[in-house]
Structures are given as C-alpha cells and as structure tokens.
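Continuing the batch. This is chain 6 of the set; chains 1 through 5 are on the previous pages. Same settings as before, nothing changed between runs. Recording input and output for traceability.
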Amino acid sequence: VSETHDRVAIHGVRREVLRAQAEAVGLPLVEVPLPSPCPNEIYEARMAAALAPLLADGIADVVFGDLHLADIRAYREAQCDRAGMRAHFPLWGRETGALAREMIAAGTVAHVATLDLARLPADRLAARYDESFLRHLPPGIDPCGESGEFHTIVSDGPAFARPLRLVSGETVERDGFAYVDFALAGD
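Output for chain 6:
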C-alpha cells in the first residue's frame, strides 16, 4: 500500500476497499507500506519483513495469481525462496480468455480500476468486467490484463460472504495510466 497515497500500489484502490474485500472473503490481510516511488531494495526488504512473521507462525506457502510472465514468476520464486517460503502459481499457463469467462460465469463482479492509456481507450475505465468488455477488447489485449493493460477491482464473487457496494468517483490520469476512484458506498 502506498504510504503517500494510502492506496494499493499500481491499482490505485483505496485501503478501506482493500480491507473490506479481505473481510468479505474472510481472509486476514497483511499490508505492506511502500514509499512512492519505491526502489526495489526497499520493496524487497519490506516484503521480507512482512513474510517473516507468517513463516514464524508456520505459514510457508505463498499463492500468486500470475498466468504467463516467466520473469515475474522467477522473481517471486526467488523472493519466496530467500524468505524460506514456497511460491505456488495455480493458474499458471491457463488460457486467459477461457479463465476470464470462467471467472465471470462463476459470479465474479469486477470493474476496470486502472488502465494503460497506450493500450486501451479511457472510456473503458470503470467498465464492468464482463462478456461485453471481453468482446470489445482491441486485438493484442490480454483478456485478464496479464501484461498490465488494465487492472480490476472485485466487489463480489463466489468467495465473498457479501457483496461490496462500490461507487465510482473521480478519474485521474498519471504517467500514461488512468485511474478511477472507487469508494465504499456511504463513504
């Protein structure tokens, strides 16, 4: 979480929304505060510090949702290995179009929170991540945004005890990316 912006780094999702997501799926949340910008040495040190108490509590496995980027996988494996933990990639190698449709069919409700303006038009920001969104993706755009074309915010799904009521607000463009500010309804 960015110390400067109080939001998830890269995605721009508010910390309170992140906490509400974790609560809705019944998982503990370990937040790692990061400066902005964040040099890699600081990122790695803070991630290692966040993982150490988990390992001390007997948690030795870390699960990632990466699909295809071998360099990212190798980096995560190396970091987990240094921390004495094992990295797992249960979705690795899945065909992203089929996976996207499987998630949507299972009841996952998500909206585009961030997008790369060089790859997608700004009018796709805040769009619901559904069959229509997938059908209208330009050629070369990964259906799961695996190459950073877009990032989503999930408000409901099979693991959620209750859906989150989110409202979209201000849109900001920064460094070639567009972000929409999603907040919990009633905030």
